[in-house]
From TrEMBL:
This is Acyl-CoA N-acyltransferase. The keyword Acyltransferase applies. The keyword Transferase applies. It comes from the Eukaryota. PROSITE patterns: GNAT. Gene3D superfamilies: 3.40.630.30. Residues 14-174 form the N-acetyltransferase domain.
Length: 195
């Protein structure tokens, strides 16, 4: 995997650190579960070497800012992945074994300002595309201050569920208002009728 100067993000109970090849076994434990992968465009992993490739894809290339989410325990247990595969989009996946304890919320609240700190300053928002039926993910984003936007019908194909709709959640960089950016996007997209 590519070398990076990505600094860890530390919270009260978590360490978000650079993804490492040694994370493959821990990540396999949850990406092999159909319940975890059903709202993604990937099949559940069936072998650890698939996870190694999956993780390598998340650490090489421009505008990538991805982390393994680890417990602050004696072994730094990997409980999820969180990051930006390409600015300004974010994504995450967590082990259900650690659900309901606030870890995903804690990680996303710490990650969001760190993402804005490394993104180009002209990128004033971040976005997450979530399956419209992935209730846990929708609630996570809302808890963390992300605002629900437009629904895209037939946005992606889940190998387990078929053709799926997604909803785009957005959050603005500190000092910006999401409503102002939405109006600006609409104005830039407006093409007057010159007939």
């Amino acid at each position: 995997m590519a070398e990076s100067k990505q600094e860890p993000i530390v919270t009260e109970r978590l360490i978000l650190r650079q993804i490492q090849p040694s994370d493959s076994e821990a990540v396999f434990a949850f990406t092999s579960l159909p319940s975890v992968m059903s709202y993604t465009s990937r099949k559940p992993h069936t072998e650890v070497h698939q996870v190694t490739t999956y993780l390598a894809e998340r650490t090489s290339g421009p505008n990538i800012y991805n982390f393994s989410v680890c417990l602050k325990d004696s072994t730094n247990t990997v409980i999820g992945l969180l990051g930006s595969p390409s600015y300004p989009e974010i994504g995450y996946i967590f082990s259900p074994a650690y659900a309901g304890q606030g870890y995903a919320t804690e990680a996303l609240l710490a990650f969001t300002p760190a993402l804005f700190a490394v993104m180009p300053v002209e990128q004033t928002l971040a976005e997450a595309h979530v399956d419209t039926e992935n209730v846990a993910s929708l609630k996570l984003l809302e808890r963390c201050g992300w605002q629900r936007g437009e629904v895209e019908e037939r946005a992606y194909t889940s190998p387990l569920l078929g053709l799926r709709d997604s909803v785009c959640y957005k959050i603005a960089r500190e000092g910006y208002e999401l409503e102002d950016m939405t109006k600006k996007e609409e104005e830039e997209a407006f093409v007057p009728d010159l007939r």
